[in-house]
Amino acid sequence: MGRGKIEIKLIENPTNRQVTYSKRRNGIFKKAHELSVLCDAKVSLIMFSKNNKMHEYISPGLTTKKIIDQYQKTLGDIDLWHSHYEKMLENLKKLKDINNKLRRQIRHRIGEGLDMDDMSFQQLRTLEEDMVSSIGKIRERKFHVIKTRTDTCRKKVKSLKQMNGNLLLELEKCVIHPQFLLHDEGDEESAAAAAVALANGASTLYAFCHQHHSHLNLFSHHSNGEEQPFKTDHDLRLA
Q1: Rounded to an integer, what distance in angstroms lies between the CA atom of residue 169 and that of residue 234?
Q2: What is the mean pLDDT of residues 105-110?
Q3: Predicted pLDDT at 172
Q4: At 54, phi and psi to the nearest 5?
Q5: Three-state helix/strand/coil letters over 172-233
Q6: How far apart are CA 187 and CA 168, in angstroms?
Q7: What pLDDT score was predicted for residue 218?
Q8: What pLDDT sits at residue 155?
Q9: 58 phi/psi in degrees, rounded to 5
Q10: What are phi and psi of 64, to 5 degrees?
Q11: Model confidence pTM above 0.70
Q12: Which pLDDT band holds residue 217 (cuts at 50, 70, 90)?
């Protein structure tokens, strides 16, 4: 039974349309490849889907530019690049004009190539407005830099104050009684009181160390099991 004839019209269903496009595109590319291999033909195919997605096939060893150049050379009277070249020249001219204008403005602002005697009132006024605008931008940038540096310095000062406070707290935790501290006031009574306090503290420390050493003597043993008296640093030096 023969295959029914398909009516050629737009496929309304988007999904079916995409599936048909993919299948037939692959089929055309397959036929183009077979034609290129079997007949040594130069084939180039370019397709754009409804979503402007490009698909291309070209014979091995060729490029699209070579194919278009050969097409243009064969026809002779058609220049495919002329219009594009003219647009490029026009765009280049606009860019040069903009560049020259910017260079002229820069020279005027730095005082080079500026002849005020030949300038009209409107030109002088425009130049003045440009200078005022530039000064405003410079000041705005300067104030921003100053503010940034000021904020940075304030943060550093705050950090240093916090470090200072932590150090003071650590200092208060130290076991140093105020009566042991000497003052640079030259007061003889204060110095005498401090000396007495130091003496009392030294006596207390000696008593504590003596008691501690006596306690250690009870647990000091020789390697043969005999008890050995605890030796102080003074005894070790004499030995």
Answers
A1: 38
A2: 73
A3: 82
A4: -90, 140
A5: HHCCCCHHHCCCCCCCHHHHHHHHHHHHHHHHHHHHHHHHHHHHHHCCCECCCCCECCCCCH
A6: 27
A7: 43
A8: 94
A9: -145, 150
A10: -65, -40
A11: no
A12: very low
